[in-house]
Amino acid sequence: MTAYDPSNIFAKILRGELPAHTVYEDAETIAIMDIMPRAEGHVLVLPKTACRNVFDAPVEVLSAVALTTQKLARAVRAAFAAQGVTIQQFNEPAGGQVVFHLHVHVMPRFDGVALRPPMGAMEKNEVLASNAEKIREALKKI
């Protein structure tokens, strides 16, 4: 297995070297807005522990990520009045993983509305900030 690379973008965000719109944080996890969202309100759930993907993540890290993913799924559904939620997690290049720090995509969904292409256009900062605030407000009610 390939070793964890501490220079990946999520590691830099976790160290405070790059900015992010944080919507949730606890001792083990953080949830941030995806800057190239496939749907309005697309968030990423990351463990604070350095792990490349599901293959090298300790059980307690996977547990924490799963619990935060559920919390964020409820929040994005409420914040955007979504009809459903898509949750995706990719492992290794053949599995579609692009950034090699374990992360889970949580995207609010609507019937008949396709996801935007992966690695698409970067969203405007003010849109990300507004969507992050909607999710933070929804989290207060969950």
Helix content: 25-40%
Low-confidence stretches: none
Average predicted confidence as pLDDT: 97
Return the CATH class. Answer: Alpha Beta
How many runs of DSSP E, i.e. beta strands?
5
Q: Which second-level CATH architecture applies?
A: 2-Layer Sandwich
Distance between the termini: 39 Å
Task: Tell me the number of helical segments per DSSP (H or I, 4 or more residues long).
Answer: 3
What name goes with the CATH superfamily?
Answer: HIT-like
Which key features would you list for this structure?
142 residues; alpha+beta; HIT family, subunit A; five-stranded antiparallel β-sheet; 3 helices
Q: How would you describe the overall organization of this protein?
A:
The radius of gyration is 14 Å and the shape is globular. The chain is 31% helix and 18% strand. Strands 1-2-3-5-4 form a five-stranded antiparallel beta sheet. The longest helix is centred in the middle third of the chain and has 21 residues, at 59-79. The protein has helices at 9-14, 59-79, 125-141; strands at 22-25, 29-33, 43-47, 84-88, 104-109. The protein contains three helices and five strands. The N and C termini lie far apart (39 Å). The model has no long low-confidence stretch (mean pLDDT 97). It has one domain: HIT family, subunit A (2-Layer Sandwich), CATH 3.30.428.10.
